[in-house]
Design brief:
The protein is mainly alpha-helical. It has one domain. The protein has eleven helices and no strands. The radius of gyration is 17 Å and the shape is globular.
Amino acid sequence: MGIFEVVAVIVLVAGAAIVQSMTGFGFALLIVPPLVLLLGPREAVVIANVVGTALAGAMLIRLHAEVQWATAFLLIGASLAGMPIGLLVLTQTSPDVLQVLIAVTVIVFTLLLMSGLSLGSQLTRTGSIMTGLVAGTLRTSTSMAGPPIVLYLQGTAMPSGVFRSTITAFFFLSGLGAVLVFAGEGSLTGELALVGVASAPAVYAGLRVGANLYGRIGEARFRGLVFAVLIASALMAIAGALMP
């Protein structure tokens, strides 16, 4: 990986961290499609998991007091069961097909999040297990574990602060599991790990900038812009996969 690619990754990480800090969602959705075009789909998924886990850990330091741990642990446990399935998809699918799969996943989940759809009105053990299983599968195949959790939790009576804290705990602990899976399987190479470490200052800077901007820009308008960027980046990823 050359210096251009490393710098580009760091810039993308900073931008996605700003979005995550301001809206509470969207890091993987935003960063994976351009990383696919830059590095390839498998490398993009691994890097997004590594950096996204670090981002969630930094956020959890501030948000841990409001985490609903019973729900978080149930979702995390189920997600661990889904990770081997996602890893199989990641390692056995051709890069072009995987690139299209990632892009389509971004578009579908972006449209679902824009619609405000919720998957239920209350937390249930069965619902949490099924949602966690899907999220774990997506975590190691596309890095996009967040949308199923958001769609599941946002229709419940969970207060917004608890919601954001709980999903951040899920991102961090499930991310640690995914990183260990990648390391054990060999997808997390030394080069990718070093790029993740080099991106740490961008994570911190993105969080600080996002926190400073929060409240200065109308959240509804900002989310609309984010959704537009998500769909545009996904379409570029599809075009890149289909071009000869």
